Amino acid sequence: MKQSLTLTLLLHWGSQHVLGFAPPVFLASGSRSHSLKPLQEAVNGKANGETPKEDKKRDRSKLIDSEDWLDAAIQSTLDKGGFDDSSFLVGILGDLHIDPRKMDEYEEGHDHWVPIFEKAKEAHGNVAMVSLGDLGESKNCDHNPSNPSELFAGTTLCHEMAAEFLRSFDVPYEVIGGNHDLEGIDEFRTDRQNLEVFMKAHGKPTAQFCREIADKTLLVGLGSTIFREAPFTSHEVIIDQAQIDWFEKLLQDKPADEGWKIFVFTHAPPNGSGLRVLQENHVVNGCCWLNHSNERQCKKFIELVREHRCVKAWFSGHFHLGQDYQDSITFPTIPREEGPYPNRGSCVFAQTSVMRGGTSRDGRQQSRLLRGNKDGFEICTVDHGKGGQIRLDATITYRDDSHEVGIYMHEDEAYEHDNYFKVYQPTEGDREYYCGAETDEECSITEDEPVTMDTKVWWRLSSGRVLGVMDGMLLEYDSSTLAPLGLVLSAEELLGRAIAVVDSGIDDCIVADDDDAMETLECDDYYQEREQAVIVHDLEKGSITVVQPNEDGSYWRKIVRNKIARMKEVRRVKAAIQYGVERLWLDETEAKKSVQSTWGPYTTTSGNAL
């Protein structure tokens, strides 16, 4: 039987880091020849004269009592040679959104995890916990009597309370920032001030982390650092460029062919993960993926995953969706009949649910359990809504340093509103069009048929941009991963209308003003991409709408403004209402109805500067 080294962690909570920070420091507790015999006897029920347990081969892919599941898991490992220095276990907590008035479910969740950690400490000692951020509730929680409108999320009290909760598990923990963790807008004037309090509370030297959990096995986290200064919605999860550079350098320095295995943790998933997302919330608002509104950075994460096969799994939260859907876990490859080849490198992506019922979008209360060794790893569910029962969701076996085989361990669970929680992504068998430079002058996307709620069609423009129709809406998709990026036209604007793509480029390289040719240009590279117009037309009324792209060439609407900007807008409206009451002698109700706002930039091409 292989022997185990029981380790006692010497460092303070959250401060054990590698690669540029303090290296991990361990002290052996007892001898390296510490025997697993007591553990094996306990598993077999022989300790203290108990009757031996008979069925240690229980089906771990079903939700079963945690003690039985853990016994079966330990027995499975012992049957395959036992625990060694490559063995590890990580508890992964999704969006906590702690409300200090509602701590009962957090205490229950804590009690579900403690025996899991204790078993792992006894077996091998390589244990840690990772919180995926969004630590506090984004509403007033009666926590500050002097400011009854203050949000709890992002405050000093929030982070100190979250740190106390995370330390109570009695294992080393790491945490990364989500889109609500810098929301202490009444307490802090800048993101930097808020971030410093977040890091201080959790003993973090940086927003990111890197922990060596077992031999050549790293836990790596990247945190959101921008809220007040977000270019669009403040709830976009933004990893700053310095972290991206650090992450890329780490992957370069820890290659798969040297045996490194890296598990990544972020609040939101990267574009290209293939995980189930919320169309009515995260896609429409542009806060679905990491760095969603920055096209170059948004693509960067999946590009790094494709290039560096050391990235074995990537865990995220953000969506508040359960772990019973099969697409809460996605593998590096899928059958081609299910969709375009995703090219996710060697990485498995996993969605993590929530602990408290009041924060769940589908009623599920679940956490992730990750356990593995040199041969592979398992992704499991700890179900807090069912008394802490555990289920094996997926097994991943390493074939070599750059390839693995993943298997779903249970069937997809049916949900009452399943379609609501899943955004259409282009797949094989749907109608598709390539409206590129080699095609005719017109692509009749819907073949002069009006769009209905059942219409599913997608097309690629000459520019490479991908558009598609689902649930009566026009969406833009990433050109490489075909992940949904955002809303172009709402169902209100699109239903009952047909779509076509027509040529709009310069003919024979002539630039014309009205009917008079003004200037002839050479056909250089600038004009080689075919210029096209996406038009939506009403078949009965004859009206035509041109869908104009943004300045950067994208089509999806970045419609949600920064939260600080929106708060200022509300204050300006209130000031205008007050002006109407005091200076125009309107009553308050009348004043509210009379006030309107206008925004830039200009939306027409008419008008000249004189």
From TrEMBL:
Keywords: Signal. Residues 1-20 form the signal peptide. Transmembrane segments: none annotated. Residues 90-320 form the Calcineurin-like phosphoesterase domain. One of its GO terms (molecular function) is hydrolase activity. This is Calcineurin-like phosphoesterase.
